[in-house]
Amino acid sequence: MLPMFLAVMDQTIVATALPAIAAEMGQVERSSWIVVSYLIAATIAAPVYGRLGDSFGRRRMMFVALSVFIVTSLLCALAPSMTLLAIARFLQGLGGGGLMTLSQALIGESIPPRERARYQGYLAAVAVTANTFGPVVGGFLTEHFGWRSIFFVSVPIGMLALALALRLPKRTMAERLPWRADPGGLLFFAVFVVTTLLALEQVHHFDASAIPRGLGLLLIGLISFALLIWQEKRAESPLIPLGILRMPAIWRSDALAACHGAALVSLITFLPVYLQVVRGASPAQSGFLLMPLTVGIGVGSLITGRLVSRTGRTTIFPVIGLALLTLIFLFFALFSGRLSTSVLMPILLASGLFMGTVMGVVQVMVQSTAGPLRLGEAAASVQLSRSIGAATGTALVSTVLFTYLAIRNPDAAHFFSQMLQHAPHTTPPINPEQRALLHADIADAFRAAFLVIAGFTTCGFFLALTNPLRRI
């Protein structure tokens, strides 16, 4: 749980410190690289650690991942420039990506299949807690001790995780997957991840001049993906396990993880924007309104894990959860303007509970299908699918928002962009009637965005419904 907490927290703790980092180091235009470099490295590292863990032992690779994470946290804290900080964050992501994959795989290694869902529910609750905990603690540490403290705080937590990992039992597996280096697969995979994530990141600039650059990066990503498939079909020890990805239970579960990641991350990303821009909430109020959602996800994950452990049933829980979640998003898209805050909070709580029906179940289904020798590959496939889904989903919702506004009312698109770049209450003064019209157009754009999120959950519903692994 502690390595999982570290890996997830480190993705979010930096967000509230970015203004302070940019103020001290300058180069504001490069501040996003502090987040993007970590995400790229963690995405690349996930399947690598999964494959190495299957071949050399997951306990041993956990020591490696934690050691890399601790050392690079110190490098981040001591970085003298924005460029070196981005490089250190990339190296830190190489450790962080391993922490998430190995935590999931170690549960599968240590716990019988029927009991795994309960423990995967614990990990899901830890991940949600870390997502909520990160920005709050990041802001507190930055304000009182400076931004470098957000990296120093990872060191003692990492040392404690290392001490706890020493208590893991040594396992002498009579049979391990043979290891052969696959440099071609790693190269093509790295190019695919880097170009695809950078292409999706271009969407967030909301600049027409960035479109050709984004399309060029996306084309390179598609070519590298085709080369990756070609390479992995002929490799003796492939980095990407095409064999297990052909199994219906696994590819449907991974696709479900991608849809779930797209819905969850885009909702958490744009819901605060909606609350502040459309409903006029302050940043503190929007954070408070998000609490029912995050609490609901943790509780839903715990309850679902216990139900799967008791009954052995799997797909029934995400099928019901995603069906009800889709109805909530459709209702929200149609009637969000008429909902009071007192009604909004229980709706968000219910959304979180239904979101929690997916996270642990997917890992259990993939690990049960893959078998004990390929637990690392299985856990990594879920993590990779969720990351790509989250990035793609967020970019798609962002595109819908700004395309809708640009077509319907270019002034509203410009006004919305200003509100995102600055605090909503510091935008240039305009007369009340014009502001009301702009807010109405922005509210309509968010209805379209919520319909897109409902589309993600609908796809997830059908993937869960058609998954052949209904019981373990």
Number of domains in the coordinates? Answer: 3
CATH architecture of the largest domain: Up-down Bundle
Reported for the largest beta sheet, the result is: none
- Number of β-strand runs: 0
Helix content: over 70%
Shape verdict: globular
Cα(first) to Cα(last) distance is 24 Å
Number of helices: 19
Low-confidence stretches: 422-427
Features:
19 helices, 472 residues, Growth Hormone, Chain: A, mainly alpha
Quick synopsis:
This protein is mainly α. It has helices at residues 2-12, 18-25, 33-56, 58-78, 82-110, 113-145, 149-152, 154-165, 183-203, 210-234, 242-245, 248-277, 283-311, 316-335, 341-355, 359-370, 375-408, 410-421, 432-465.
Kindly describe this structure.
It is a single chain. The chain is mainly α and 472 residues long. The protein folds into 3 domains: 179 residues, Growth Hormone, Chain: A; 55 residues; 232 residues, Growth Hormone, Chain: A (Up-down Bundle). Helix content is 80%, strand content 0%. It is globular. The chain starts with a helix and ends in a 7-residue tail after the last helix.
Write the topology of this structure.
Blueprint: H1 2-12, H2 18-25, H3 33-56, H4 58-78, H5 82-110, H6 113-145, H7 149-152, H8 154-165, H9 183-203, H10 210-234, H11 242-245, H12 248-277, H13 283-311, H14 316-335, H15 341-355, H16 359-370, H17 375-408, H18 410-421, H19 432-465
Helix pairs in contact: 1-5, 1-6, 1-8, 3-4, 3-5, 3-9, 3-17, 4-5, 4-8, 5-6, 5-17, 6-13, 6-16, 9-10, 9-17, 12-13, 12-16, 12-17, 12-19, 13-15, 14-15, 14-19, 16-17, 17-18, 17-19, 18-19
